[in-house]
Amino acid sequence: MTFSQFQEQFHISLDPQQSAAVQAVEGPVLLLAVPGSGKTTALVTRIGYLCYALGVLPEQILTMTYTVSAARDMRQRFMTVFGREEPLAFYTINGVCSRIIRLYERMMGRQAFELLSDAGRQSALVAEIARHQSGEFANEGTVKAIQTAIAYVKNQMLQDEEIQEVEVEGVDFPPIYRAYCETLRREKWMDYDDQMVYARQILLRYPELLNRLRTQYRYICVDEAQDTSKIQHSVIELLAGKGGNLFMVGDEDQSIYGFRAAYPQALLDFERTYGGRVLYLERNYRSTRQIVEAADRFIQKNQQRRPKHMTAVRGAGPDLETISVYNRQEQYALLARMGTQCREETAILYRDNDSALPLIDLLDREGIPYRCRQMDGTFFTHRTIRDLTDIIRLAQQPRDGERFLRVYYKLGAGISRAAAEEAVRLAGPEEPLLAYIAGMETVSPWTARQCRALLTHMQGLLRESGDRAIYRIVHFMGYGDYLEERKMDAGRTEILEALGAREATPLALLERLEVLEQVVRAGAEAPESPLILSTIHSSKGLEYRHVILMDVADGIFPRAVPGKDATPEEQAAWEEERRLFYVGMTRAKDRLSLVRFRKAELPSVFAQEVLGPVTLPRVVKRILRPCPKPAAPASRSVEREAEGYQPGVPVRHRRFGRGQVVQRNGDVIVVSFQDGGRRKLSLTAALRAGQLQIE
User: Fold this and answer.
1) Neighbours of 640 (CB within 10 A)
2) Of 10, 186, 222, 364, which sits with the fewest C-beta atoms within 10 Å of its C-beta?
């Protein structure tokens, strides 16, 4: 059957690039497919072309996908297009590796290790090893982070010296990894990633088994190749062989799973590895011309990519929109108001689940329906959040020895373990532990003063709103310094502060956290609601009429902007941030909006590249409350007034009270306030707002 006859019989219509891909059936072929280009159509049609036009037996075709659901969907897609079911192999790469191990057992008469398939058992094992190594209970977030790192090591095929460089926040990962692997071997278990490790070893050690598989599967197809890990690519290379009929489909511009060890470099090395051809699908059928052109310009700035361009098949649509807000709090309020007016399918996309919590909190409070997948509760069990909630509870119960021993060394008061344990053991029934330590003769005068200051802070924060209390703990009570010293991410403290802004007291915040944890773990299924909340990772492969990208600010999304002397690792992370943003942009069919901030501390390289100077579209003006205009340049009178603010000058701040200037660098001054806290202030901004004056 000719290709034309095949198309006519099955009513198939393809563009020229898709047609070329379908007919490329011999030898190694890499198909690079831009978003919305119909790559699944091309892949499924090619399988049908092999079976019905070229007479290839379905049993000789192996198709590997990234997820079980993708394999299931592709099988269903084949049946929909061709109207019949065939004995085709649609598996994940892990599924293929499991079958290699089963074949090994049958051919060699040996029993492989037992698969540790129970996620709960594996988590408990990791938690116990971490507790034994660190002496502390590992919370849910830490366990998940360790599991992710274990999978990363195995998927990247890291050597011992490279494993020493792997870091997991809050724990010493290498000894945990070694103990985990030793336990699996001792118990004769293997985890899901071990399946790939052992399958690769089997293929290398037993050529007769490898030849049997190559004979069985003459045609191999791989979907979502940009998300495939290094060890998975190694298994594929062994199965396909040099010059084999391998059809690999992917797009290095959409590789966003670096934390799972995705290895897009394999797509760039395809010709060197296999000596094959590279074809392209560059026509986007999903999005309007404005979205396609903006996304294509944006991704061109990456260096580690193929020289391809995405072009739009659809015509023009609305221009890309700026949703202009002052700060993140205003962002959440605005997006919630938009939710009440939402009439068309609208997806609010964000970098990670934590970013959405203040928005989910507000939607839940206001009873605004939305759709959102279930989330894990790692935010609520993370050690940073646990520390902050412990400190609030300690302020409420200053004799709580268990909590005190968990946090005393994180508050920068120089308290020794011996002093902390003595206070827990000997302090009077009504005496706060900090007060006891402040009165000990064995502690330094500085530690005594710090303990008295902390006690004052503890008493003060209970009378504040939730956000002010969190701010006080982080910035005035030493906890922020603790995070910085240990290079721990402080982003969660900002999310908790945002949640606290809606609570009158920190104790009310703790109560709300318990409710909110139940909300996010349950997810939100409102089938009739057009409002969708999702991470960009979870939206991969999906499309929406209107997409809003939130938190578009340097330090949030993207996570970090590299400097001129960036290391190769920092540059690689930066390119993945750009790819993630690109994937978010290309989920939009008709409209694309970016939330960007007017606050000076929240600039955005990405928003500047995509949208240029800040503009406020008419559609946004209708739903925005009036916002203050950006401050005008400092007048000469403000400049003259600022000259008097030199080190040693006593001042009064409208919010923070009396203090003294202790340092000045240009427009930035450092003021030591009587409550014990130090703050950096923009002098001209504080003077313009009438917040600061000389005493």
Assistant:
1) 9
2) 186
Cβ-count burial of 580 within 10 angstroms (0-12 exposed, 13-18 middle, 19+ buried)? buried
- pTM for the model stands at 0.85
**3-state SS assignment for residue 694:** strand
**Cβ-count burial of 256 within 10 angstroms (0-12 exposed, 13-18 middle, 19+ buried)?**
buried
Residue 482 has pLDDT above 80, yes or no: yes
Could you tell me if 581 and 558 are in contact, meaning their C-beta atoms sit under 8 angstroms apart?
Answer: yes
Residue 659 has which token pair?
């203090």
Instruction: For the chain, give the number of residues.
Output: 695
CA angle 283, 287, 293 (to 5 degrees): 70
Contact 114, 189 (CB under 8 A): yes
Give CA 272 to chain center in angstroms.
32
| Of 320, 355, 359, residue with least CA distance to 537 | 355
> Are residues 672 and 678 in contact, defined by beta-carbon separation less than 8 angstroms?
yes
pLDDT in the model for residue 653: 76
Q: Alpha helices, DSSP H only, in 540-601? A: 568-585
Confidence of residue 481 (pLDDT cuts 50, 70, 90): very high
Are 32 and 222 contacting, i.e. CB atoms less than 8 angstroms apart?
no
The closest alpha carbon to 435, from 468, 413, 465, belongs to 413
State the Cα–Cα distance between residues 320 and 588, nearest whole angstrom. Answer: 11
pLDDT at 654: 67
Here the tokens at position 148 are 């992710």
Residue 97: closest CA among 194, 204, 189, 208? 194
The pLDDT tens digits of the residues spanning 348-359 come to 999 999 999 999
- The amino acid that residue 183 corresponds to is T
Q: Average pLDDT in the 11-26 region?
A: 96
Q: Name the DSSP class of 546.
A: E
Is the CB of residue 245 less than 8 Å from the CB of residue 27? yes
Q: Do you find a cis peptide bond into 558, omega within 30 degrees of 0? A: yes
Give rounded-to-5 percent helix, strand, coil for the chain.
50, 15, 35
> Looking at residue 168, what DSSP letter applies?
B
For the chain, the first-to-last Cα distance in angstroms comes to 93
Q: State how far the Cα of 147 lies from the Cα of 116, in Å rounded to an integer.
A: 13
